[in-house]
Design a protein that fits this description.
- The protein has 348 residues and is α+β, with helices and mostly antiparallel strands.
- It has 2 domains: 139 residues, no CATH class; 158 residues, Histidine kinase-like ATPase, C-terminal domain (Heat Shock Protein 90), CATH 3.30.565.10.
- The chain has 9 helices and 7 strands; from the N terminus they run ααααααβαββαββαββ.
- The strands form 2 sheets. A 5-stranded mixed beta sheet has the order 2-4-5-7-6, covered by helices on one side. A two-stranded antiparallel ribbon has the order 1-3.
- A hairpin with a 2-residue loop joins strand 4 and strand 5.
- The two termini are 47 Å apart.
Length: 348
C-alpha cells in the first residue's frame, strides 16, 4: 500500500512539473513576457487548475460519470471551469499591480484562458478512465489467475491421496498374504512418494521424471498383478527437458487397473504407448474389460481421478490438447494429444 501511494505521488508530481514547464515555455515564446514573471503566473495557474483537476478526479467522476449521469457530469465540469478560470485570472491580475500593461493583457486574454483549462480537465478525465480500466482489467486477471492456482492446488490435493490410498490397499492385501513382494512394493512406493512430495509441488516438472514415475508405478502393478495382467509400456522419441504438469497421465493409467480390469477378469492386458516429438506428446492407453463391467457407464468408473485430470487439462492446456475415448464392449482406450507450449489445438 505504501509503495502504491509513493508511486502515485511520483506520477502526479511528474505530471504537474511537465505541465508547468510546458505552459511556461509556450507563454515565454508566444508573449515574450519576463521569464520569472511567467513562472509566477503559471504557479498561480497550476494551483487553481490543480484544485479543478482533483475535484474532477475525486468528486465529479466517481459521483456522476461512474454512475452514468453524463449530463450532470458535463454540467458540473463546465461549471468548475467557469468558476476556476476567473479566479485564476483575478489572482494573476492582482499580482501584476506593478505592471499595468500586463494587467491589460491579462484581461484581454481572459476568454483564451478557458481553452487550456478545459483541455487539461478533459485530459484528466481520459487519463482517469484509462487508469481505472487498466486497473480493473489487471485485478480481474489476477483474480482469474489466483482462482486457477487455487483450483489446481485443490485438484492435485485430490489426485495425490487418491493414488496413495489405492497403492496402500494393494500393499495391505500383500501383507495379509505375507507375500515376499511386499518389500519391493514398499521400495517403489517410497520412490514415488519422494517424487510426489518434493517434485509435484511445482507447477511444472521435467517430462523425464514423469516418465520415470509411470515406469515405477507400472513396475509396482506388475508385482501386484503377477501373471494375471500383461502390462506393456513403450516410450518413443526424445524425452529431455520438456516441462509438463505433474501427475497428468497417472489417473488414466490408474483407471485401467482399478476400474478397467477389476477383480473379475482372469487374464487381461494394459498397453501404454507414449510418443514424444519435441513438445508434442501422444499418449495411448488401452486396457481389457471384464464381462461384468460391460454395462457400466465409464464416467462413473473414472472416479475422482479422471474428472480432475480433465479439469486440469482445461486449466493448464486450454486449446492445446485433444482427448478422445473409445469404450468398446471388451476394451477401453484413451488417446491424449498434448501440446506443451505454443499454438492452439481445437478439440473435435
Amino acid at each position: 500500500m505504501l509503495l502504491l501511494a509513493s508511486t502515485r505521488a511520483i506520477r502526479h508530481t511528474l505530471f504537474w512539473v511537465v505541465l508547468f514547464l510546458l505552459f511556461s515555455m509556450v507563454e515565454v515564446l508566444v508573449s515574450g513576457q519576463p521569464f520569472f514573471y511567467t513562472l509566477s503566473n503559471n504557479l498561480v495557474r497550476l494551483f487553481f487548475l490543480g484544485l479543478a483537476v482533483y475535484f474532477n478526479v475525486y468528486r465529479l467522476i466517481p459521483k456522476y460519470l461512474a454512475d452514468k449521469r453524463f449530463f450532470w457530469y458535463l454540467g458540473f465540469l463546465l461549471l468548475t471551469v467557469f468558476i476556476v478560470t476567473p479566479l485564476e485570472v483575478f489572482f494573476i491580475y492582482a499580482k501584476s499591480g506593478n505592471y499595468p500593461e500586463m494587467q491589460v493583457q491579462v484581461l484581454e486574454n481572459l476568454n483564451w484562458q478557458f481553452v487550456p483549462n478545459i483541455f487539461v480537465l478533459s485530459t484528466s478525465t481520459v487519463v482517469k478512465i484509462t487508469i481505472d480500466w487498466y486497473t480493473n482489467i489487471r485485478e480481474k486477471q489476477e483474480l482469474v489467475t489466483e482462482t486457477m492456482h487455487s483450483e489446481l492446488r485443490f485438484l492435485k490435493s485430490q489426485i495425490n491421496p487418491h493414488f496413495l490410498f489405492n497403492t496402500l490397499n494393494s500393499l495391505y492385501a500383500l501383507t495379509l498374504k505375507k507375500s515376499d513382494l511386499a518389500p519391493d512394493i514398499v521400495l517403489k512406493l517410497s520412490e514415488m512418494m519422494r517424487y510426489m512430495l518434493y517434485e509435484c509441488n511445482e507447477k511444472w516438472v521435467p517430462l523425464s521424471k514423469e516418465v520415470n514415475y509411470i515406469a515405477n508405478y507400472l513396475e509396482l502393478e506388475r508385482i501386484r498383478q503377477g501373471n494375471r495382467v500383461d502390462i506393456s509400456y513403450e516410450v518413443e522419441g526424445l524425452v529431455s527437458n520438456q516441462k509438463i504438469a505433474p501427475l497428468m497421465f497417472i489417473p488414466f493409467i490408474e483407471n485401467c487397473f482399478k476400474h478397467g480390469l477389476g477383480s473379475q477378469i482372469s487374464k487381461g492386458f494394459v498397453n501404454i504407448h507414449l510418443d514424444v516429438r519435441g513438445n508434442e506428446i501422444d499418449l495411448q492407453i488401452e486396457n481389457s474389460k471384464a464381462e461384468a463391467m460391460l454395462k457400466q457407464l465409464h464416467p462413473r468408473s473414472g472416479g475422482i481421478g479422471l474428472v480432475n485430470v480433465r479439469r486440469r487439462l482445461d486449466l493448464l492446456y486450454p486449446n492445446r490438447y485433444k482427448l478422445t475415448v473409445d469404450d468398446s464392449p471388451t476394451t477401453y482406450m484413451v488417446k491424449l494429444h498434448l501440446r506443451l507450449e505454443g499454438g492452439e489445438l481445437k478439440n473435435s
